[in-house]
Amino acid sequence: MVPWARMGLASALRGMDELAAAESMGASVIDDFPEYLAAYDSVASVREEMGKLAEAQEVLAEGQRKIAE
């Protein structure tokens, strides 16, 4: 499945308050398509909502490193 469709699914999961599933879907997009930068922001946002602030910051830093490459 293409990354934008998977991120749409992650967004739908988040909307249904299925945060763990949304986080997992977004993380799988990062694993499979590390150049798809919107996934980093999405995962960070979900992690923030889950109270995982340090992990949210980590994924944003990972995205920044990807931009610098």
Explain the layout of strands and helices.
Layout: H1 3-15, H2 19-32, H3 38-49, H4 53-68
Description:
The relative contact order is 0.15. The chain has four helices and no strands. By secondary structure, the protein is mostly helical. The model has no long low-confidence stretch (mean pLDDT 96). It has a single domain (3-68), classed as Serine Threonine Protein Phosphatase 5, Tetratricopeptide repeat.
Quickly describe the structure:
The chain has 69 residues and is mostly helical.
List keywords for this structure.
69 residues, mainly alpha, Serine Threonine Protein Phosphatase 5, Tetratricopeptide repeat, 4 helices, 80% helix, TPR-like_helical_dom_sf
Kindly report how far apart the N and C termini lie: 25 Å
Structural class: mainly alpha
- Give the radius of gyration: 11 Å
Give me the strand/helix succession: HHHH
Q: Return residue spans where pLDDT drops below 50 for at least 5 consecutive residues.
A: none
The overall number of domains is: 1
Total strands? 0
CATH topology: Serine Threonine Protein Phosphatase 5, Tetratricopeptide repeat
**Number of DSSP helical runs:** 4
